[in-house]
Automatic annotation (TrEMBL):
<dbReference type="GO" id="GO:0003905">
    <property type="term" value="F:alkylbase DNA N-glycosylase activity"/>
</dbReference>
<dbReference type="GO" id="GO:0003677">
    <property type="term" value="F:DNA binding"/>
</dbReference>
<dbReference type="InterPro" id="IPR036995">
    <property type="entry name" value="MPG_sf"/>
</dbReference>
<dbReference type="InterPro" id="IPR003180">
    <property type="entry name" value="MPG"/>
</dbReference>
<keyword id="KW-0227">DNA damage</keyword>
<protein>
    <recommendedName>
        <fullName>Putative 3-methyladenine DNA glycosylase</fullName>
        <ecNumber>3.2.2.-</ecNumber>
    </recommendedName>
</protein>
<dbReference type="GO" id="GO:0006284">
    <property type="term" value="P:base-excision repair"/>
</dbReference>
<keyword id="KW-0378">Hydrolase</keyword>
<comment type="similarity">
    <text>Belongs to the DNA glycosylase MPG family.</text>
</comment>
<dbReference type="Pfam" id="PF02245">
    <property type="entry name" value="Pur_DNA_glyco"/>
</dbReference>
<dbReference type="InterPro" id="IPR011034">
    <property type="entry name" value="Formyl_transferase-like_C_sf"/>
</dbReference>
<keyword id="KW-0234">DNA repair</keyword>
Length: 212
């Protein structure tokens, strides 16, 4: 899991042109990239293994469906590469990255990541104890879900609107490309009528940090 042999250039940041493309393409290509979080002098590195695409005005599962604009979702209408972090169910933070051109209102939700470095810091943020003291159940569930990964990486709504193409605290860098990718229906959108069946969720096959 720690991939100690793997050399990752944490300065090789994805630029705006990467995100300023078809959202489904961006979603698939985010798999294998590395989500970087710098905090308290530490660098947390995780590999993105699961995402969901949300396609704006025509997508009934999207916060911007039919052109809706609220204080919460206004970042989705901004520049590509901005972090869209929203708070839901009174307890969870969800990290998305804005895609396409301004005013289009599309984004990709980061649903699951695999911890690569500083696993004890992930563990402390998530469970309040060192990784070695986690149960087998906790180890399997440290970052395999969108709310779990934001807690484990200390990402909250203070990062909403942050430019991830320029930030030195939260950003994504180039990573692996030779991956077996699976597409499926998105999770937890039972309200979205026909959009329930869109195959807009993508994940790395057989990776244990994909949400259940």
């Amino acid at each position: 899991m720690m991939n100690g042999h793997l050399e990752i250039n944490i300065e090789n940041i994805l630029d705006r042109d990467f995100y300023k493309r078809d959202t489904l393409v961006v979603a698939r290509e985010l798999l294998g990239k590395y989500l970087i979080r710098k905090i308290n002098g530490h660098t947390l590195i995780s590999k993105i293994v699961e995402v969901e695409a949300y396609l704006g005005f025509e997508d009934k599962a999207s916060h911007t469906y039919a052109g809706r604009m609220t204080k919460r979702n206004e970042v989705m209408y901004g520049e590509s590469g901005l972090a869209y972090v929203y708070f839901t169910y009174g307890m969870h933070n969800m990290l998305n990255v804005v895609t396409r051109e301004e005013s289009i209102g599309e984004a990709v939700l980061i649903r699951g990541v695999e911890p690569i470095s500083n696993i004890d810091i992930f563990s402390d943020f998530r469970f309040g104890k060192e990784y070695i003291n986690l149960s087998s159940y906790q180890r399997k569930n440290i970052t395999n879900g969108p709310a779990k990964l934001t807690k484990a990486m200390a990402i909250d709504t203070s990062y909403n609107g942050m430019d991830m193409t320029k930030s030195d605290e939260l950003y994504i860098v180039h990573g692996e490309s030779d991956l077996k990718i699976v597409s499926s229906r998105r999770i937890g959108i039972d309200y979205a009528e026909e959009a329930i069946d869109y195959l807009y969720r993508f994940y790395v096959e057989d990776n244990s940090f994909v949400s259940k």
